[in-house]
Amino acid sequence: MAAVEAFGDRYSGTFEKWARRDADALARVDPGELESLLDKSFTVTRSRRADVDLALLELLGSCRAGRTEPRIEVLHRAVLGALTQRLTGRGGTGFEDWLRLSVLAPEAVEDVSAVQRASACHALAALMRPPLVTLLAATASGDPDPTVRGAALDALTGQPSRLASEALLAAAIERDAKERSLARLLLADHLSELESAGSLASAWDDTLGARLVEAALPMLVDEDWRVASRGVRLARHCEFEAAAPRCIEALFAWERRETVQEEATGLIGMRRVRHELADLLRAGSGLKLGIEPRRWTQWWRGHLAGDERPRVSSRTVVPDFYGLELRSGAVAFVIDASGSMDHPIPGRYADNDGPTRFEEACDQLELALQRLPTPGAFQVVLFSDTGERWSDEPRLVSDTSRSSIRKWLRRNPPGGGTNLSAGLDALLPRDADGRRRADLLAVDTVVVLCDGQTAEDARWARAWLAAYNESAGLVFHCVQIGGGDAFALEELAKRTGGTFVRVGR
Predict the structure, then answer these.
(1) d(Cα 238, Cα 222) in Å, to the nearest integer?
(2) Cα 189 from Cα 263, distance rounded (Å)
(3) Which of 224, 310, 443, 464 makes the best surface tag, with the fewest CB within 10 Å?
(4) Low-confidence ranges of the chain (pLDDT < 70)
(5) Burial (0-12, 13-18, 19+ Cβ within 10 Å), 429
(6) Measured in whole angstroms, how far is the alpha carbon of residue 8 from the centre of its chain?
(7) Separation of alpha carbons 486 and 224, rounded Å
(8) Residues 6+ apart with CB under 8 A from 145
(9) Whole-model pTM?
(10) Cβ-based neighbours of 392, under 8 Å, separated by 6 or more
(11) Region class of 352: left (phi > 0), else alpha (psi between -120 and 50), else beta
(12) 143-193, pLDDT tens digit by residue?
């Protein structure tokens, strides 16, 4: 018996050791070795089983955090499957009963770490049933650890329940600054997901919208453009009559801030926020008056006086890149350079006698750079089996930089596979310790061009955004050439408020 108990200690110790590795080290864990240990862990005695289960729960959380790496996603599925299998029973609800009664119950706080409780919240999200919404809402408001409260809110995001909406809204208003920031981001994602799924009406109403005004509208003029952008996403769900004058005030504020910037790096986010504010006003008024706040002021005065006739003309939109309008002063282009890009766009030219997809992408890039507002900055990344960045930092649009990018593209012809993760990895700056730092990224908009099914899927896209986009605040516009699957591209665009377009068949 002592030998069997020692094996239990060994398994839990190994799982805990792996759980506390960084992502690069965790990715080196052999899936075969993990599977073998998972099988053997079923033999431990009842007295050691709880230790092994909690160690696996901690490992599950670490794997979830690193799922942007495909090898770690394999580990995540294996650990979740093993935990579910170990704790099945009680009519098939054994796993969630264990999480509810032994991990997240208030009396378990002393015996279960915050890391393990946070992992339990994420695990419950995959099993979501109405009773679990109540449990997670209680955890989001009552757990003593802010990491666990945040994990519970994350698990509630997208759940078609008014209780989930109330929990997210309460945290967005009542928590301290750091927790409010995360809660507002999650609330914006929550409302977007409900809207996409057609379930907004069942989980959100005017009463909640009136309370949201308190959280959302002050964000529109925050000094941080990322905060303002999230405020716009939230303000879409406020009463328009309350949001409109604050949006116009914010347009004036961001115009002033942009006017005093002398360097393109200071424009990151500013131009994009102005367009987002104008989009909100357009959606509520039905008018296209652009980003000039004085036009909107004139309209608002007429609106208050009962005169709904537009007194100013709408603007003409000139597409910048494959029909997209790039409304930013700092854009990164992440372009597929796989072997299939060396062929023409399907159905575009008779007998496939025309420029290759890569050549056309280079031409579209040149046009987009000509149309970027001055001053403006850009970055270019090519991806195939690996990713390669043109410049260490985004560079100002100029004759010199356009000439440089043309030469660089000619030196890097297409070839290899379609690994989008390699392209986005190359885009992200790294600090002195080699860690990816999305908060150091000097662009606010990313345009992805791909001509085939990527090695990544929608689940990977969600994991990437969860890992990096809270600090980066990026909008993704994605272009798919041809009729293949584009799950990752569609997810990146949908979840960041960007646009997905398909070219060719």
Answers:
(1) 18
(2) 32
(3) 224
(4) 1-9, 89-92, 128-130, 262-266, 308-320, 346-353, 505
(5) middle
(6) 39
(7) 32
(8) 114, 117, 118
(9) 0.85
(10) none
(11) left
(12) 999 999 999 999 999 999 999 999 999 999 999 988 999 999 999 999 998
What does the DSSP assignment read for 157-186? TT-S-HHHHHHHHHHHHHS-HHHHHHHHHH
What are the residues whose beta carbons fall under 8 Å from the beta carbon of 9, sequence distance 6 or more?
48, 51
- Rounded to an integer, what distance in angstroms lies between the CA atom of residue 282 and that of residue 51? 57
| pLDDT (tens digit per residue) in 439-498 | 999 999 999 999 877 888 888 898 899 889 989 999 999 999 887 788 999 999 998 989
User: 501 in helix, strand or coil?
Assistant: strand
Assign 483 to helix, strand or coil.
coil
Q: Which domains, and CATH codes, for the chain?
A: 2-198 (1.25.10), 216-304 (no CATH), 330-503 (3.40.50.410)
Tokens at residue 56, please?
């696996």
Distances (CA, A) of 352 to 15, 347, 357, 484, 485: 54, 8, 11, 18, 22
Helix/strand/coil percentages in the chain, nearest 5: 60, 10, 30
Q: Residue 399 and residue 405: Cα distance in Å, rounded?
A: 10
User: Could you give the CA distance from residue 409 to residue 93 in angstroms, rounded to a whole number?
Assistant: 55
**How many Å separate Cα 274 from the centre of its chain?**
21
Q: Are 142 and 174 in contact (CB under 8 A)?
A: no
User: Tokens at residue 406, please?
Assistant: 């043309």
Cα(294)–Cα(256) distance, rounded to whole angstroms? Answer: 13
309 φ, ψ to 5°? Answer: -75, 130
- Tell me the one-letter amino acid at 19: A
